[in-house]
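Homework help board

Subject: predicted structure for assignment chain

Our instructor gave us this sequence and asked us to write out the predicted structure in token form, then describe one feature. I got the tokens but I'm not sure how to describe them. Can anyone check?
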Amino acid sequence: MDNNVILAVASALVNNSIIALVFNFRGVGGSQGSFGGGVAEQEDVVAAISWLASQREVDVSEVGLLGYSFGATVALPVACVDERVRALALISPPLEPPQLSQLKDCVKPKLIMSGTEDFVVLRQKAELIGREAAEPRQFELVAGADHFWWGDELVLAEKVTAFFASLFKKAGP
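My token output:
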């Protein structure tokens, strides 16, 4: 929850009147439990969505999910099968062949963003992920951005916010 990418995006969403729930996976920060190899963490995502959907302020027809780096590998399988999730944003997603297969079959609106200087998700892999994703999709490769998005957080946050706002924000009264 203290990550620069997550904080920038959550702040931008809230500043645009979009509810943002930020949480730690099991075993991270003050969260109980221990690392579950990405599988058990999917349960954390489902539990967070369930809690969020139970809040009266939340329109359950407008739930989006964002995952950054490891979080993207956890968010993808949940978003593709959980009917409550209507859209997905994947930031610097280090996807492997099994996850690419899921991405090919996931027809929910999705935004995939990576940087040209990402040393975890190399440019060629990012471009492959962008091509392999089922429609509807938006793929953004940000020039100069690395895996940690240092100095590019605002650009990233604006694009993610615009993506979710275009899908969920209702026009005026």
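Reply (TA_rk): Your tokens look well-formed. For the description, you could write something like this. Residues 27 and 152 are 28 Å apart (CA to CA). That's the kind of observation they're looking for.
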